[in-house]
Amino acid sequence: MGDGERGHAVREWLRGIDVFAGPLPEFEPERAPADPVRLFLSWLSDAVADGLRDPHAMTLSTVDEDGDPDARTLVLKGVDASGWQFAGHAFSPKGHQLAVHPRGALTFYWPEHGRQVRLRGPVAPGTAGASAADFLGRSATARAESLLARQSQYLADAAERDQALEKSLTLVEREPSLVDSAWTLYTLAPTEVEFWQAARSRVHTRLRYERTGADWQRFQLWP
Ligand SMILES: Cc1cc2nc3c(=O)[nH]c(=O)nc-3n(C[C@H](O)[C@H](O)[C@H](O)COP(=O)(O)O)c2cc1C
Fold first, then answer.
1. Which of 4, 13, 93, 126 could form a disulfide with 130 if both were Cys (CB 3.0 to 4.6 A apart)?
2. SS3 of 116, please?
């Protein structure tokens, strides 16, 4: 099969995969609450109640010093009036990117519900106490990995990794209250939050909250 034929076959194959299979919930934006945190928690609760996998997983998008975008999946650590929280290592690529350009976007997608939530806004590191509490709530191996401060570096030798990890794990087990000061709990305080509900008809419903001072204004968007 030549490249052109293969490309055509892949396009046909992709076109044949169903999306928004449903059954999908109804979304009435006119009845949405004034506060996007409330609506977000209700959609997340629906995802948890229906047993969706990794319902708190989201994509964090950042921008590097050259203006190039980057994105990866993280888990949500908390949501309150101050914003949406996630945690990561300050020396990781995302940590560097947030240090030079402290803004980001978060995207959630719950496929079985055909629901997407998008947020954008400034990102700020939390207090040392909040970051330490998050760090200490992680598994011993996760803490040991973090202390190596090598996330996303080139791995040339798996044996070197395993040895370093074992040493770090011994340290963590000996000193369970040891905190990695580079582990950071970040908060994205959104200036915009969009709720997107798919419909089989493809007339999707979109509601965007835009921050105006302490309040939120709501706008429906074209699909
Ligand atoms: C479901 C899922 C959850 C993840 N949660 C986290 C997380 O909470 N914090 C984190 O630093 N990395 C998490 N990761 C790993 C990141 O996607 C990423 O590989 C890592 O943070 C390095 O990213 P960076 O090189 O852009 O800094 C998770 C990956 C997946 C697939």
1. 126
2. strand
CA 89 to ligand 1: nearest atom? 11
Q: Which residues line ligand 1 (CB under 6 A)?
A: 54, 57, 70, 72-75, 87-88, 92-94, 151-152
Q: Is the pTM of this model over 0.90?
A: yes
Bridge partners (DSSP) listed for residue 58: 74
Domain limits for position 88: 28-138+181-221
End-to-end CA distance of the chain: 38
Does some domain include residue 187?
yes
- Among candidates 53, 31, 38, 33, which has minimal Cα distance to 108? 53
> pLDDT band at residue 1, thresholds of 50, 70 and 90?
confident
Q: What is the CATH number of the domain that holds 57?
A: 2.30.110.10
